[in-house]
């Protein structure tokens, strides 16, 4: 029996390749509400609380658009602590005229979707109280997409002006295009130790730690057998999974070694690629 990943495990940061750093920093500050923690050498680290890195932007002057029907980032999801925070973000985006890709009610959360200037998908969302999350007869969460009550949400915004993301904002989950669902399941469930919480036929899998609705979404919507994007494509370079302590970190590394995953390990970092080439850094809190 495989080791189940510790329930306190969370997503840490998302590192994106962009084509124009100044343009991307301006977008993430003015539209999303991040603060710049550090910016140098074609790289910027963004934060919500002034301390914790949440998004890393790295410019590649030779970057090309991510080709359609390739593996990689579908979207990364910014979790705000309260519904009113989501309402203020949505109101700010509507007032700015920035194009949205959609909005949805997933029962366990409410979400707004858009993309950055390079087309990297972004979700901003707020969770409903956990006691309201609905499950199926099999014990998995109901994975539904219903229209968002936009007027009801905006009514939560109040009169307080938008001032960016609140300090308790974090990366709630990452959603990836993958090439093969069977290999993906083996890696994320038997290797990393995440638990399956939503399965949509053979096309999508959502896994989590500690009974969350999902920390990682995985789909073959770009096509079964989809190739990896070019190395110089914009998109996801790496994202991190944060284990609560070194003991749990070592357990996950050991389990990945047991399934034959290729781990890059040095004094500072432990990085592993999933079967579709999506790169993950394993960190400790």
Automatic annotation (TrEMBL):
Task: Name the Enzyme Commission number(s) assigned to this protein.
Answer: 1.13.11.2
- The keyword Zinc appears for this protein: no
Q: What is this protein called?
A: Catechol 2,3-dioxygenase
> What keywords does the record list, in alphabetical order?
Dioxygenase, Oxidoreductase
Does Oxidoreductase show up as a keyword for this record? Answer: yes
Question: This protein's superkingdom?
Answer: Bacteria
According to its UniProt entry, this protein's organism is: Anoxybacteroides tepidamans
PANTHER family, per database record: CATECHOL-2,3-DIOXYGENASE (PTHR43279:SF1)
One Gene Ontology molecular-function label: catechol 2,3-dioxygenase activity
VOC domain segment(s): 10-127, 170-285
Q: Which CDD domains match?
A: VOC_BsCatE_like_C, VOC_BsCatE_like_N
